Amino acid sequence: MTVERVSTGIPGMDEVLNGGIPERNAVLLTGGPGTGKTIFSQQFIWEGLEEGEPGVFVTLEEHPVQVRKNVEGFGWNFREYEDEGLLAVVDAFTGGIGRASEYEKYVVKDPTDASELIGVIRQAVNDVEAKRVAIDSVTPLYIDKPSVARRIMFKLKRMLAGLGCTSILVNQIAAHERGFGGPGVEHAVDGIIRLDLDEVKGRLWRSLIVWKMRGTAHSMRRHPFDITDEGIRVDPEKVFVKEHGEVREVED
Amino acid sequence: MTVERVSTGIPGMDEVLNGGIPERNAVLLTGGPGTGKTIFSQQFIWEGLEEGEPGVFVTLEEHPVQVRKNVEGFGWNFREYEDEGLLAVVDAFTGGIGRASEYEKYVVKDPTDASELIGVIRQAVNDVEAKRVAIDSVTPLYIDKPSVARRIMFKLKRMLAGLGCTSILVNQIAAHERGFGGPGVEHAVDGIIRLDLDEVKGRLWRSLIVWKMRGTAHSMRRHPFDITDEGIRVDPEKVFVKEHGEVREVED
Amino acid sequence: MTVERVSTGIPGMDEVLNGGIPERNAVLLTGGPGTGKTIFSQQFIWEGLEEGEPGVFVTLEEHPVQVRKNVEGFGWNFREYEDEGLLAVVDAFTGGIGRASEYEKYVVKDPTDASELIGVIRQAVNDVEAKRVAIDSVTPLYIDKPSVARRIMFKLKRMLAGLGCTSILVNQIAAHERGFGGPGVEHAVDGIIRLDLDEVKGRLWRSLIVWKMRGTAHSMRRHPFDITDEGIRVDPEKVFVKEHGEVREVED
Amino acid sequence: MTVERVSTGIPGMDEVLNGGIPERNAVLLTGGPGTGKTIFSQQFIWEGLEEGEPGVFVTLEEHPVQVRKNVEGFGWNFREYEDEGLLAVVDAFTGGIGRASEYEKYVVKDPTDASELIGVIRQAVNDVEAKRVAIDSVTPLYIDKPSVARRIMFKLKRMLAGLGCTSILVNQIAAHERGFGGPGVEHAVDGIIRLDLDEVKGRLWRSLIVWKMRGTAHSMRRHPFDITDEGIRVDPEKVFVKEHGEVREVED
Amino acid sequence: MTVERVSTGIPGMDEVLNGGIPERNAVLLTGGPGTGKTIFSQQFIWEGLEEGEPGVFVTLEEHPVQVRKNVEGFGWNFREYEDEGLLAVVDAFTGGIGRASEYEKYVVKDPTDASELIGVIRQAVNDVEAKRVAIDSVTPLYIDKPSVARRIMFKLKRMLAGLGCTSILVNQIAAHERGFGGPGVEHAVDGIIRLDLDEVKGRLWRSLIVWKMRGTAHSMRRHPFDITDEGIRVDPEKVFVKEHGEVREVED
Amino acid sequence: MTVERVSTGIPGMDEVLNGGIPERNAVLLTGGPGTGKTIFSQQFIWEGLEEGEPGVFVTLEEHPVQVRKNVEGFGWNFREYEDEGLLAVVDAFTGGIGRASEYEKYVVKDPTDASELIGVIRQAVNDVEAKRVAIDSVTPLYIDKPSVARRIMFKLKRMLAGLGCTSILVNQIAAHERGFGGPGVEHAVDGIIRLDLDEVKGRLWRSLIVWKMRGTAHSMRRHPFDITDEGIRVDPEKVFVKEHGEVREVED
Predict the structure, then answer these.
(1) Looking at this predicted complex, what is its ipTM?
(2) Of A95, A125, C83, F208, which sits most exposed with the smallest number of CB within 10 A?
């Protein structure tokens, strides 16, 4: 039995994942402020589009207009694919207030209402026949009600996998927080990728580690990465050692 | 007085347990996300089937259809044994909603209702004359009500031992959490096996340790293990030292 | 003024206690899961019986039938002494439900009702003219109500000392917990013995330390111990150093 | 696509930011007591005025009269620019009680009422055609209601960016607190600059680090800074290593 | 102005206190279980009696009969001085239930009722014209209501100083707890003496330190002490270093 | 613009503050039990009197009679200046109960009523034309209601600065507590001086550090100090290194 995989499109990341994310997996992308979670999730959608896989980007943290503008900074033109009916940007930010209601096709009025959110995403996935979904972020869905986090994550995951989508669920944690978002969230998802920003001896370092990924072996190392003009670039040949801010070649 | 034992079927694990799990013990299998708890519990059921011991697998975290698909990845065909009446998969995930109600024989509508859950498991055990039970996981039974954890664990344990079953109770803890699930749970069970995933110098390591096991002596060491295409494989001859990510031969 | 002492009967333990537990002391035996508290308390009762001192064993954590079966594993036949009227096993586990009500003579229906528990223990002590009492464990008496822990412990202690009994009160703490059960409990008892299970460099170690014991000097060292086929065996000539997992001879 | 930038005017700071703060960014300036947050935010406004960019300074922590007096200590004459209609000082301190109501043009009666605060700031920005806004501090807006912090920060940020302003939002944390103000605040803003005061070997050290800044690369180093008679002065060529109180040249 | 002092009577302790406790000071004697607080407080009363200073011992933790028996173990005959009208033992333990009401002259029915407690102590102090008071312990007075701890301690202190008494107020903290009982208690008293029991490299060590003492300079060192057959004996010439379990001569 | 300064009168302290406390600053003097906060605040008032600056001492922690007695121990005669109308002692301790109401001129009946406290202090300041105020301590004003701490501190500070007074506000923290009293208090005041008492290798050390002081540069070092028969004496030429209990010369 071979596992179908979805390429992340992020240079170096597929090598870390032994070929990509197993199809239909819901992957928690977790990290503190400034770690690059949003860029990672947008790049995942963009690279899918470039490879012919339609996608849905759900924004809860930024105005959809701002999202389109931000990705342009990396040379990614979301508007074009939206016009071709291959990309849907779901606006779960404005609440449909202001001019957004006129211009945005997919609007979630109350993003803390999981049913509404799931309904709109389902519609968007069906419309563009999406294979990839990114939600930036899932944190507001349960931040005020940790006891239901597990249930909400299960619902989301079931819907997305049921529709045949591979998904990135961005999760925000406080700076310097250990763990990945609490047991309810961590155990509900199929995979966990953690992005880190660490100060070591007066210098900030970026690194990521795949903590779990159902259906595939993966690198068991922490890899350094950079945010460049063209997005994220992971170095699968290097290992980053957190306490010492040391980077060395992968060896076994 | 000799203790009757149940072989785990996991390569290397029986050596760690001086021959297997003492019959009728309820063993807490505890660990963070991505540590391999689900695979361990499924392998325990599978190896029993292969040795002619009927089993019950109770799933609270994954759709029963997904469970059957996942185990196939390790070459374990659950469906076949279900058809022969030697394995029961108890669906405590779907709530009997959707098509599951038609296809699944054992359905728990409300898994937070301990009485219903216990009733359905009892029925399944009786039907297949099970000698082994795995519950993945027991965490939702008490996650919102820690004060009753002890009582629920006692009820489960009494039912399972009363029916003559040896059982694995999967328990989820947050990543990096010490302890095994709180005093109420830890003291209620007959054994505790902890699976760990640790980052040491930029690399992830898997290891397990048997913290307690009533009715038998057992290895007092932390052993490294791997997750392979054929499931978990423990190395009983090696000791894993957590802080240094060092593996060495067992010596006394 | 010489202090009357009660021998623990546990090889090496009396040396640690400069001759045994001062008569009528209520001793807290505290430790995490798997540390051997239950065995210690049963061995204390058994050795009393063998020396001609009647005893009472109160079980809140295990079915009385299971208790009798477990101790047989160490060659201790509780049933025989029960039949002779020298040992009372108080069942505070089953709640008198099921066949226990027929077979068990001493049943506590609601173990969280301290008055009922104390009443039944008093009756049992009087009936067998007990000199030793072990309660395994006192934790459920106050686990949901820490503010009354002190009061409950005082009541128990007053009753037991008033009846002339020397007692072991088992207390469960979470794995890796420091302290002995909170100030309310720690200050209420006459003595504290702590059993530990520590992982040092991939190996588990057993050790105990006497933290306080009214009415006698005692070893101020942490001693290693083993659980053998014949119960616990303490090495009073050896000191265990926790951080380094090192064992060395006692010196002054 | 080139990013428009706003010069901080703080010697050395623009170098740290690769040229300044990207236009319209809302930047969280966070730090413990005595770290220099207020001076930084006032210098940001002052240098804008000197370069011809009108500004708004919102004071929640100090009487507006005291603010004008304090900045004079650094040679910055706020009054003059206010008279010219290029600077608005918004009084969210006095509540309009006392003589403030007569002398202050922009008064927020209840600073915990986010709508009123936003309304008054909007008016002030429009009146002076401000390009820069500093709010000292945003902490009282959510200190008693952390669950709404995210929502309030989003509202503020949307208003300020919508009006074309680049803003500094001062955030107070307790001395020695790690993190930047909690996940709700940290993820809502476009940038985070942290000011620190650390005792190392009996000496206090000042340093800052840019933790995130949307729309630009920035120094990944912790830089030492001083508070002089003329305000803050950052040393972009030096790196401060916190644990050792060591300062060394930037190298790559 | 010379400070009047009260000798503790504990060998070595007066040297630590530069001559004794300043008259009328209320001193918090704080420590975990098994540290020797009760013995210290009883020895303080006993040595006063032997020097002709009447005293009051208030017991909240032990039956007055048991108190008298315990002190005999050190050769201190409380009963004799009680009969001479020079010592009052205030029974705040039995609640006046049982035979205590007949034999005990000073009974506090509800020790959590601070007014009643203070009233009975006042009566006892007046009756025997006490110069010394020890309360073992004050912890139950505020353990369930930390917010009133400060107020209760102030009341006690005012009463005791007002009557001309020097007092030892025993305070119980959990094992391994840092601090002395919380800010409310720590700041209310005139002095703080902390007794410690520390495990260092598998051995228990006893030591004490005077943290504050109004009205006098005192040793700024941590001194080792022993509990012998004749009570506590402090070594004012030695310094105990906690982390290393090292004892060395006092030097300056 | 030159800053007007108020000399602390404490030997060595003005050097630490580059000449004294800037006029009208409200300075938080914070520390654990036994650190010398009360003495520092009294010495500040006393030295003002000796230099001809009237003062107000507000006592919330000690009976005014006891205050006068305590300061005599350092040779400071408060009564004399009170009689001359140059010093007011505000009694916020007795609540006006007992004889205090007859003898004390300035009585605060309910010190938790901030309005009453502020009213009485205002009256006292006006009566003696005070330039200095010390409040020992402000902790009871907000200890039970941390959410209003910020507001109360602002009120106090506004009143004191408005009346032209330079003030010391004593704040009590628990022993071993880091920080200075929580963000609400720390950010509200103009300056923070922290007094410490640290045990290093079995010896207690006194030191202080100025953490912030609006309107002036100040020593960025931790300085050792002593409490002598004549009050506090700071050594501005020495630096105290906390972890090693080491004292060395100031160097740059």
Answers:
(1) 0.90
(2) C83
